[in-house]
Amino acid sequence: MVVRAHRRAGILHRMLYRAPLLPYRGRRLSIESIIEWVTGLISEHLYAGVFFAAVIETVFPPLPTLAIFPVAGYVASQSGLGLGAVVLLGIAGGAGATVGSTAIYLAAWKLGRAVMLRYLKYARIDDARLARVEGWFERHGDKAVFFGRMAPVVREMISIPAGLLRMRAPKFLLYTFLGSCIWSTGVILAGYYFGVAVFGGGS
After folding, report:
1. Phi, psi of 200, rounded to the nearest 5 degrees
2. Residue 44 in contact with residue 52, Cβ under 8 Å?
3. Best-predicted range by mean pLDDT (24-28, 41-45, 60-64, 104-108)
4. Of 17, 71, 143, 166, whose CB has the highest number of CB atoms within 10 Å?
5. Enclosing H/E stretch for 58
6. Three-state SS for 203?
7. What's this model's pTM, rounded to 2 decimal places?
8. Three-state SS for 30?
């Protein structure tokens, strides 16, 4: 059943992504192929897969949870798991996002804006986009991290201004974890309830 869910997940990948190819160790690797690999990980190792997918997504912004986490919800529903499992999956996603976001936060704190811009160029995020997120952070303060983790586009970058502007680590960890848990649970719930409409029935 889990294997069948994973195969149907390929339908979503083909609909969502025909991304340009990226160079990787002498080969050509597409965003779509990375999504396929990560969703395979989720299908085989549900909770650990969600955790590692969230870590990867926070350090590699082109990888979107909106295209991946619904698969976790779908697999959970087809495996007969209840809503308690969805909440645990959301917590696993929140924990993974916190680990990855903390790495970016510390890198921004230690390395500075110029280095982080060089990192962001691989995600096609330029100075202007980062400046908008920095302005949003300065206007809203620490709570920008909590709400930013639930806002598309902003969520991929909010850890950088938090690090650059020396947000206190305990608050950063708390707000990142809570916001990420809410986001992850919501996206996984969408797959849990509506995944059949995208991937097909479980029989």
Report:
1. 105, 170
2. no
3. 104-108
4. 71
5. helix 46-59
6. coil
7. 0.77
8. strand
